[in-house]
């Protein structure tokens, strides 16, 4: 039986319990699954959020890779086509976090245009932790 590929995306800059719970829930989306987590590159975070991450990309990738539910953690692409990495890994499912800006149906449609049949699922918020709140509390 083929393992179902589930893809999740994020910066994971200040890793907290909400991230871990999100990844645990991603892994539960299919019984026989491989969870691939795509970590945003430093340059992409700087371009899109106007600030560089606190933790460098390779360290963030290493920390996420070490989490129990994660089968593979990879760095995303640096160019502006965010879906190129999806074309490369060809997941069966994309799990979106509660705060990720994609619209599920629009994303599925865009991927269909690229020849991919991917189910997009929006997960809820887990816990009260939020990286931006942590950053504010420690004044960074």
Chart the SSEs and their pairings:
Elements: E1 4-10, H1 17-27, E2 33-39, H2 42-49, H3 57-65, E3 72-75, H4 84-89, E4 93-96, H5 104-113, E5 119-122, H6 131-137
Parallel strand pairs: 1-2, 1-4, 2-3, 4-5
Any overview of this molecule?
The model has no long low-confidence stretch (mean pLDDT 91). The chain is globular, with a radius of gyration of 15 Å. The chain has 140 residues and is an alpha/beta fold. Helix content is 36%, strand content 19%.
Helix-strand category: alpha/beta
N-to-C order of helices and strands: EHEHHEHEHEH
What is the terminal-to-terminal distance? 47 Å
What is the molecular shape?
globular
| Main β-sheet, spatial strand arrangement | 3-2-1-4-5
- Biggest beta sheet summary: 5 strands, parallel
Q: Helix share of residues? A: 25-40%
Low-confidence stretches: none
* Count of distinct strands: 5
Percent of sequence in beta strands: 15-25%
Q: Please state the average pLDDT score.
A: 91
How many helical elements?
6
From the alpha carbons, calculate the radius of gyration and give it in angstroms. 15 Å
């Amino acid at each position: 039986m083929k393992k179902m590929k589930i893809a999740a995306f994020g910066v994971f800059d200040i890793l907290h319990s909400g991230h871990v719970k999100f990844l645990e829930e991603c892994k539960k989306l299919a019984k026989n699954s491989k969870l691939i987590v795509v970590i945003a590159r430093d340059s992409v975070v700087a371009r899109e959020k106007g600030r560089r991450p606190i933790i460098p990309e390779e360290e963030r990738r290493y920390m996420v890779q070490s989490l129990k539910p994660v089968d593979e953690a990879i760095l995303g692409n640096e160019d502006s086509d965010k879906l190129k990495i999806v074309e490369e890994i060809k997941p069966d499912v994309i799990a979106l976090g509660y705060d990720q800006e994609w619209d599920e149906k629009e994303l599925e449609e865009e991927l269909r245009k690229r020849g991919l049949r991917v189910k997009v699922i929006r997960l809820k918020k887990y816990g009260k932790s939020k990286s931006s709140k942590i950053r504010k509390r420690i004044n960074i």
